[in-house]
Known about the structure:
By secondary structure, the protein is of the alpha+beta class. It has two domains: 3-181 and 397-480, Aminopeptidase (3-Layer(aba) Sandwich); 183-395, Alpha-Beta Plaits. Helices cover 30% and strands 30% of the residues. It contains eleven helices and 25 strands. The strands form six sheets. Strands 9, 11, 13, 15, 16, 18, 19, 20 and 21 form a nine-stranded antiparallel β-sheet that branches. A six-stranded mixed β-sheet has the order 1-2-6-3-7-23. It is elongated and about 85 Å long. The model has no long low-confidence stretch (mean pLDDT 95).
Amino acid sequence: MSAISELEPKDFFGFFEELSHIPRPSGEEEKVSGWLAGFARDNGLEHYADEQGNVIIIREADPGREDSEPVILQGHMDMVCEKDPDCPKDMHVDGIDTELEDDLVTARGTTLGADDGVFICYALSFLSRKKASFPRLECVFTVSEETGMYGAERVDLSVLKGRRLINLDSEEEGVVITGCAGGANVELSLPVIRNEEISEGWTLVDITLSGLLGGHSGSDIDKNRENAVVVMDELLREISEQVDIRLMRMQGGGKSNAIPRECRVKAAVRREDADRLTESLKDAVSGIKERYGENEKDMEFSFALSEPAEGFACDRVSTGKCLELIGKLPNGLQKMGPEIPETSLNLGICCLEEDTLKLTYSLRSQKRQGLDDLEEKMLSVAGSFGAAADITEKYSPWEPVASSDLQELLRETYRESTGKELRFTEIHAGLECGILLEKLPGLDAVSIGSDLWDVHTTRERMSVSSVRRVYGFLETFLEKC
């Protein structure tokens, strides 16, 4: 048994320990969905599960609270599954190894899944309470939030009676989110010609870039964190000015909403150019570290030359088009708002294999027009290179509301519980509230959370003391509302 299961509140951390043993990558939530349905059955709670895997669990009001307005608690059950290069886990099959150091819970070699495991554990803690004074609780657990809010788009909320919703997918204690960015994924496919036979007379080079900070493609996009694919492309374009290099493979990133930390390339050069390639690589790496090393202190390049086996590389034109396309497409922060980013995008996945270069971008904007303009620019650039583009998982921004009854009740409860004031803001990341608002007319929605850091990376951390305080705050709110 992990040390975290003995932490207070024991119900929350006991559930978190159980949850850590259940693999739950986006699109593969069958096990965690079944676990939630089993929890509902064991506790005699009304529950619903749809074919997508979304689960709704309802706890009727306690005696004396029957006339109170219901409260909806909502979040997602999937997690971003990232791991360190030397981690042997298969995150489609294996659970997470949690670790406790002082006030922080982390995971060994992988993402922790506190995004959004904290919601699941808060919800189950209150749903399983035997003696309380809560109104009717309606808890909505959605699937595939991290890959485009697929679950929220398709969940049927007709069984819900409440019109006050608290989303628990935020990452800073004492902050209430009242609006968020809209978003979309853009998947680009560039055909390549792979007809350059690599045999005697050629030298292979393997180049690896690693050690970048990475991070969340929304909340970290303005923190000067470099994108490994974009940096690798910069390196290759600089080298190609000196040496005739031919791409064979290029792989970077694994999730559209995570800033890539690593990128790997296999390429070929004429054997007589091998020495010049080595010198060009050293010069290019030196220049890149000088440009980005202040923010990316752990950036590391490695390369190795080898004799070729049988295989084919992209021809000169296709190699050039691949590198130029990545360089021409926008990436990162595009427009800054008064306090938070307004429009951005992230090249999250790059894969060159066989006859196609595939690029997946996550687009975000606080304004619908900003999202539309960014899409138009992406399509224009892609079209000029002959690349096909597919826009998927598009969702509208959640427009902020200046004040509401729910906001005021939360403000009052927090002030009484802690002696502190809540801060209300919007974020440059996607939350499901905007989608749910369209499904439930008259919905009063906010998002809150406890302190998490570096989500979507293997440095993800959860504060034990913050969980404890937010747990107490939520408990007081449910008793008071």
